[in-house]
Amino acid sequence: MPHRRVVSGRSQEPRRRFAEELRLLRAQKRVTFRELGERLGWDRSQFAKMESGETLGGPEVVEALEQFYDTTPGLLLALWELAVSDPTQFRERYRRYMTLEAGALSMWQYSAGVLPGLLQTRDYAGELLAQGGLSAEELRTQVEARIGRQGLLTRESPLQLRVIVSETALSTPLQKSESWREQLEHLNTVGLYSNVTMQVLPQSAGLHALTNTDTIFLRVVDGQTVAWVETGYSGELVQEPTAVDRLQLRYDRVRDLALSPEKSRQFIERMLEEAPCEPST
Known about the structure:
This protein is an alpha/beta fold. It is built from twelve helices and six strands. A six-stranded mixed beta sheet has the order 3-2-1-4-5-6, sandwiched between helices. The longest helix has 17 residues, at about 240-255. The chain is globular and about 60 Å long.
């Protein structure tokens, strides 16, 4: 007679499973959110949002919780990584791409009109995604999913990222000047990561092969390179090698027109210096 499989009763959905584990560990430790904040140095609301599933937090917070709860080494971080890479949190048409992105070794991207998702702050993502007419709940879910993807840049074996950002994207500020300054500061911070290379394509470069098309290339574990091409209305996953090669040739030509990484950093720093500040009250 075959053995019956033990059913824990816990969720099989990665984000919910992660939140459940956090709630269980805190209950076993018998600590409040306030006590967690005092012991670990983060705002207590961060832990409340993580337990409710509103946010996943970052790897540094997860590692701190793992040490505080003295749980199995790597357990919480493994659950967090599964939650971050779970494709079901994304809108259906993006799920295949997100699955590939989660397992990619490297990515190179050209952003024509908006900043790359892996470099967006929460305010930028929220304002941009709100233009699609999402409900409040769906908007919150999609913003958290986008921010959660950024863990790819700080995981143990981080994604190697190269981005070319058009001056057009950098010249389109957010409604709140404080949020826009925060976004520019975030670009400067992430640009210092050893696994991130950032270049700016100035408007003076003129017309080029990817003028109105956001393009992403992913090198996956088996060595294959795939591309994702997106306009404001639709996206397409390109896997046929000849088509990917043609797109990469276009990307290489755009990269030749871009500023060097150092000059690009200086460009963003000048924009930050010129960005308006919120009026004092």
